[in-house]
Amino acid sequence: YDFYITYWDRDNNQAIFEYPTNVLKTPEWSPDGKSFVFVKDMATQTTILDELMYSDWEGNLTQLTDFSPYYDYSKIDAFKWSPDGCYMAILFRTNSTWNSDDKEVLQYLFILNVETKEIIDYCIPTNMFIGYPVWSPDSAYIAVDLQKKDCCCPEDYVINLDTGAAVKIADGLTPLVWMK
User: N or C: fewer beta carbons within 10 Å in the chain?
Assistant: First the structure.
């Protein structure tokens, strides 16, 4: 392994636990600061599989996703907690290469219910998400900026998580924060 995720006890100046990983993505702390999620590389000789792992304060690990029955290549490009801590937005890729002439959808926005581990695919076709998803303060909506293969400029969408409706709100902008 090339990297370690380490829980460090500053009072006693020692590691509580270390978890080896080949993926260098910053863990995402939960909104309440009591746990975090990180990407675990589950690759084998014939597959590339990223999965999301949940860790509590004691270092107890829970695998949140299991893409292996569905994909032999799965890459988590980004992930972000909802403000209420109930969901994770996942920017997910299923192909190992990006060919601008290829018409296949390469990236997806998945929303993971952290408690039930249910994943919802909102079926927004895209070949590239730009930036991170931006959650509304009440965790009911998410704004994303994406680039479709047949379009020259990014498009901005807001998704209602209850209804699944995705509404295009602008072209060429990048959502950064949600105003109250």
Answer: C
Token pair of 123 as six digits: 């079926």
Highest mean pLDDT among 52-61, 71-80, 88-97: 52-61
Token readout for 58 is 């004691």
β-bridge partners, 119: 112
SS3 32: coil
pLDDT tens-digit series, residues 108-130? 788 999 999 999 887 766 656 66
Q: How many CB atoms lie within 10 A of CB 36?
A: 18
Residues in the chain: 180
Judge whether 155 and 148 are in contact, CB under 8 Å: yes
Asked whether 144 and 178 are in contact (CB, 8 A), the reply is no
**pTM to 2 decimals?**
0.80
Q: Which two tokens stand for residue 62?
A: 């829970």
What CA–CA distance (Å, rounded) separates 46 from 48?
7
Q: Is the pLDDT of residue 172 over 50?
A: yes
